[in-house]
Amino acid sequence: MTGAVPDPLPGWLADAGRVTVLTGAGVSTDSGIPDYRGPNGVWTRDPDAEKLVTLSYYVSDPAIRRRAWRTRADLRAAAVTPNAGHRALVELERQGRLRALLTQNVDGLHQAAGSSPQRVLELHGTVHAVECLSCGDRTSMDEAMARIDAGDPDPACLVCGGILKSATVSFGQALDAAVLDAATAAAADCDVFLAVGTSLVVYPVAGLVEVAAAHGARVVIVNAEPTPYDGLAVLVVREPISTALPRLVGT
After folding, report:
1. Secondary structure, 3-state, the chain
2. Catalytic residue among 86, 124, 128, 215, which?
């Protein structure tokens, strides 16, 4: 079924006791954070912007690193707060029905909305921390931004002098194995797998849909554009996420 949120909700969805949710960039667009691959996405409008999140370019080209830090500084100036979609998932947890919240987003808005950090698995890391690519030293993004504000366009690690990067997973960089294992377990142990605002083209995360379906979960996809996994879904919703998600979780 493709289209609007059913009214009333089917019993298998309204009564699901273990819902695993996967969120992508589309969940945060109503908070003012642009998506990447949509018609007006960052990479659609500026294909070179993808280099900023590609590890090989970032490591080899100081100009790319300087642009990445400038972009980070510009984004920090924007007022970004959780939206109704984030709050709906807080309500799902409050109902005791949320098995896990898997997110490809790095913005921390799920936690800011009130989702328990223990329930949130940040598959692609977080923008609120910085890591050294050489020694692994980890500090806060605020500390790095203070150095940017002080005039250092490409701050190096204060421990070893290595290259610093936001603690996000770039293209060409492996996901944290423990986080991915936990996400796979959550996909395999749910009644409903709800994929929201994600194009489902980035692996291995996109493959979690197959894991869920193979273990008997009903798959629900909420996304503005078609995804490669729409055929596996029992329900595909094309309505705006901030209005559809509250109704899907019964708020």
Report:
1. CEECCCCCCCHHHHCCCCEEEEECHHHCHHHCCCCCCCCCCHHHHCHHHHHHHEHHHHHHCHHHHHHHHHHHHHHHCCCCCCCHHHHHHHHHHHCCCEEEEEECCCCCHHHHHCCCCCCEEECCEEEEEEEECCCCCEEEHHHHHHHHHCCCCCCECCCCCCEEEEEECCECCCCCHHHHHHHHHHHHCCCEEEEECCCCCCCCHHHHHHHHHHCCCEEEEECCCCCCCHHHCCEEECCCHHHHHHHHCCC
2. 124
End-to-end CA distance of the chain: 22
pTM value is: 0.89
Neighbouring residues of 11: CB distance < 8 A, sequence distance ≥ 6: none
The pLDDT score that the predictor gives to residue 3 is: 81
Residue 128 annotated among the catalytic residues of the structure: no
- Bridge-based pairing state of the strands 164-168 and 192-196: unpaired
Alpha carbon of residue 239 to chain centroid:
19
Measure the CA–CA gap between 128 and 143, rounded to whole angstroms. Answer: 10
Residue 92, both tokens: 């799902």
Give the β-pairing of 138-140 and 192-196: unpaired
Residue 1 confidence class, pLDDT cut points 50, 70, 90: low
Determine the Cα–Cα distance for residues 25 and 28; give it in Å rounded to an integer. 6
| CA distance linking residue 79 with residue 95, whole number of Å | 29
Distance CA 142, CA 98 (A): 31
Give the model confidence (pLDDT) of 191-242 as tens digits. Answer: 999 999 999 998 999 999 999 999 999 999 999 999 999 999 999 999 999 9
